[in-house]
C-alpha cells in the first residue's frame, strides 16, 4: 500500500473525554469547531491561513458574536476534519488508500489552498491495483462528494484498464485462491518451475473486485466489458466468483426478509452482466443456480426469461440436481416443474431450428446427436425425481415427458423407471390414468432387464404386461433364428433395424399377435370366476395345469406359440380371470406331426 507523509511537527492533539479534542500549546485556544459529536478547541490563525471556507465561517461567527462554529454534514466526519486540522498546524499526517478520499473531500469542503491530497491520488493511488480498489470501496460512504470530485469514475477506469493488461505484463500483487482453469493448467504443465511461479492466469483480477458493493461492482464490470478486450469465459468466471462470494447457500437465507431484497438485486445485476455469447462464457450449472435464486427471490420475468434462454443453449451439460428448483407459493409441488418445462421447450425449439438450417449455411446453434441423447437421459432422471412428489399432477408429468423428442430416447428404461415411481407414489390413479401414463413408453425400447421387471410389475396395467411379454418373445425368436442361419445373419446385418424386423419376424409377429389378442384380459384383474375352454381334438386328450402368476401364464402361452410355429395349434378360448384366481385355466392341445403311424402326443398348458 502506498502512503504519503505530510508535516513534521509532533502530535499535539489531546483527548479530553469522549467528545473533546484540544491542541497542547502555550497559547490559549480561541475558537471551538463542532463536527458531529466532537468539539475541537483550536486556534484561528493556522486554520485561516490554509482554508478559505474557515475564513468565511470565522467572519460570520465574529459578526454573530459567537466563538463556536458548527459544521453540519462535514464529509468524512470528525476523523477527516482532524486530518485537515493537523495539516494546517504542520503536524505529521500520513495519507493512505483508506483515508485519502475522506481527506480529499474534507479539503474540498474547507476550500484548502494546497492540493497535496489531489497530487497523492493522481501520482500514486490511481496507479496501484489494490489501492484503487480500496479507494473505490471507501468512496461509497462519501457520496456525492467522491462522485462529484470524479474519484469514483477515475478508480473504475483505472481498475478496468488494468484488467485488460496482458497477464504476462502483470507486475503488481493480486489475490488468487481458486484453482487454475483447464487452459492455464495445460500451459502450466509445459513450463519450468520458475516460469510456473511467474505465470499469471487470465482471470487473476476477479477475486479482488469481489469485495465491492453491488452497484460499484456493476459499474466496474460494465467498464471491463465496454473495452471489448475481455474473453467471455473470463467474464463468466468473474460473475460466478462474485455470486459464490455473496449469495447464501441455504434456501431459507435466500428468501429471508433481511436479505431477500439484496439477493434479488444481486441476481438481477449478474443476469444483466452475463456475456452476450449465447451462454458460452458461463456453465449451465451456474446459470441454473442463478435461475433457482431468481425464482426464490422473485425477480422480474424478463430476467428469468433471459436465463431460461441461456440455459436452454447448454441444457445437455446440466445434471438432475441442477434442475431441482424449489417451487414458490402458491405452487403446491416441491419443485418448479413449469420452469423446467420452459427450459426444455426452448431447447427443443433450438434443436428444431438447427435441423431446419440449410446445408452450407452457418448456424449459431447446432446440436449434436450426443447432446440430444444427454437431454433425454437428463429429463428422464428429472422425471424420476419429481415423481416422488404426491402433489405432482399427471398432466405436468405427461407434458414434460412429451416435450422431449423421440430421438432423445432410444431406450425407454429411464422413462419406465419414472413411470413406475409415479404409479407407486400415486396409488389412487384411475384405470384410464394408469393407461394414459403407461402409454408414454414404448415397450419395444425396453432392455431385457427392464422388460423382466415390467413383466412382474403389478402396478402396470395387464395389457402393458402382455405387450412386454409379447415383444420379448419376438426378440427371443429373432435371436434364435439369427443363430440358426449364418447366411441370413449376413443379409440382415446389411439392413436397417426396421427392415431387419420386417424381414425376419413378419410371420412370427402375425402368429403371435393373433395369440396375444386371445389372452387380453380386463386391466383391473378381471373377475374371480374364469371361463374354462374345452376343445375336441383328434388323437389327443385335454388336461389342466395351474401356474403361479399372471405373467408366467401369459409367457407360457406365448412361448408355446413361438416355439411351435407351424406345428402347434392353439385352440384355447379367451379368458377373463384375474391373476389371483387359482381356478382360472385353459386347455391347450399340442399336436405333433405323425410319423410311421405313431399317434401324436398330447400336452396340457395353463395360461390364465
Automatic annotation (TrEMBL):
Compositionally biased, Low complexity: which spans?
573-584
Q: Where is the composition biased (Basic and acidic residues)?
A: 502-518
Q: Name one GO biological process term.
A: protein ubiquitination
Polar residues bias: where? 482-493
Chain intervals for the UniProt region annotation (Disordered): 482-547, 567-608
Report the residue ranges that make up the NPH3 domain in this protein. Answer: 203-475
Q: Cross-referenced InterPro entries, in alphabetical order?
A: BTB/POZ_dom, NPH3/RPT2-like, NPH3_dom, SKP1/BTB/POZ_sf
- Keyword Calcium attached: no
The keyword Thylakoid is annotated on this UniProt entry: no
Which protein family is named in the record?
Belongs to the NPH3 family.
The protein's name in its UniProt record: BTB/POZ domain-containing protein NPY1-like
Task: Tell me which species this is from.
Answer: Gossypium armourianum
